[in-house]
Amino acid sequence: MSSENLTKIGVLVMSYGTPESMDDVEAYYTHIRRGHAPAKEQLDELKGRYEAIVGGVFPLRENTNGQVAGLQDKLEQLAPGQYACYQGLKHAKPYIEDGVRQMAADGIKRAVGIVLAPHYSIMSVGGYIKRAEEKAAELGIEIAFVKEYHLHPKLIEALTGRVRDGLARLAETSGGEERVKVLFSAHSLPEKIRELGDPYEKQLLETSAAVAEAAGVKDWQFTWQSAGRTREPWLGPDILDTLKEVAADGVKGVLAAPIGFVSDHLEVLYDLDIEAKAEAEALGVALDRIAMLNRDPLYMETLAESVLESAKGLN
Fold this sequence. Notes:
Layout: E1 9-15, H1 25-32, H2 40-54, H3 59-78, E2 83-89, H4 96-105, E3 110-115, H5 125-138, E4 142-146, H6 153-174, E5 180-187, H7 200-215, E6 220-225, H8 239-248, E7 253-257, H9 266-269, H10 271-283, E8 286-289, H11 297-311
Parallel strand pairs: 1-2, 1-3, 3-4, 5-6, 5-7, 7-8
EC number: 4.99.1.9
GO molecular function: ferrochelatase activity; metal ion binding
Protein name: Coproporphyrin III ferrochelatase
């Protein structure tokens, strides 16, 4: 334990997590299912999706590692020597609790937690915060949290640039004459969040509207994707159904803007780039997708500035 760490503020960077290799997929899926191993068909399907997007190699993990490193670099520029970043994943190692444990082992006494997801839901970001809070209390670390940053000006700027670029690509391929619609999307959650007064849906619509306005987009709508397969109803319509609707309405080009996600992973690379693209093709609709944020400098600044703001609340 260095004396230097006693004054440093730890930054717990949390995300959903992804397996490190094909060998880890079963353990990962079992953790998502709260300790219940998946049936062989379920496991084979998930492995098939990973094989389709990454051929069994996992650059997906590198996206999160890169974002954590990028945030550390940005914090070092803004507040030299004052912050140390740690990673905590929901469903893979290092788990959220491991990240907090490592901070404690390094002598960190004060910390800020931030999730690599701009929009707050009690079922998503709220769950990360609860786990981090409990472990931090147990280990005597004072911790504050960034709960959402869905309207941070630099996040909106980064997304706006990507929407403009995507529309320019679509215009080029169609000669600029076809009707194009922007479909903003995010991971669906169970419908019951509406009864809880959860802000998730409202925040997603706020981000969509802000980006559409900044990019000068008039023809857009919000849709959902990647719903879980459970008995309870999930928020809809799903993007595959929305594609059918917009095609019937005469739309010839769609720009998918998955603003609920911040990096390239399964829900983007498979659910949109493979599944939604195949559906669009069958409907005679050209589908393109905005580039994900990954380590975009504006996104790194969004995270860093949000952390600095949250740290003001620490004793």
